[in-house]
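ok posting inputs for the 2-phosphoglycolic acid job
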Amino acid sequence: MARTPWFGGNWKCNLSAEDVKKLCASYKSVEIQGGADVVACPSPVYLTMVKDLLEGSKVQCSAQNVSATGNGAFTGEISVSQLESVGITTTLVGHSERRTLYGESDETVAKKVAMCQESTKMIAAICIGETLEERESGKTAAVNERQLKACLPYIKDWSRIVIAYEPVWAIGTGKTATPQQAQDTHKEIRDFIAKSVSQEVADKVRIVYGGSMNAKNVKELLANPDVDGGLVGGASLLDSFIKDIPNQGN
Ligand code: PGA
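and the output
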């Protein structure tokens, strides 16, 4: 089944406004071939700026995080409806840095997915993945399934879900999963969705890889049938991201 490749550039808490302007100019100068969906995920302070700067290009702007609550007395939060009101219709949810550094539990991540699904537009890229200790003790499938299982009751529109498999040990470490490890784990995740939701949903949902993906390893990773794109951190801060990575997905 042909799935449209999906790529995210996760800029994390990096870049000044000036840096953002330069990076957007280089993102905009490159033609993305074919139909890959590509999003840039800046810090919230730059969301509207990046959205405007990327206007007219194929790259959309995405949030890195969203609130588990709606509008109201929730200091410091950004709600789904606020994002939508400025034209942002994709967000990452449950990135491992949110889970490990900011204590987001499976339940919190599931609430965020629920908020995204309650709207009619918001696409949630749900990040899941195991730590090194969990992989070494054979718990990879169990961890991924636990993290996904928490979200399943709230997902009614699978066309607005992307799954980013990001082994925690590969994020920002320069240590990428081998193409075989990525394929095996993506296949396990797809099989789990087939079993818990339906074969049709499993065939359609994009499962993308994240964890030290770069211009050198992207081709091999994407050569696997169950790897549908990537969520790229460090390498997405380089101008070469946009010309070297998304065009490999065609
Ligand atoms: P990395 O980050 O590419 O720098 O490993 C990926 C991510 O955290 O999404």
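notes: The longest strand covers residues 123-128. The first helix runs from residue 17 to 29.
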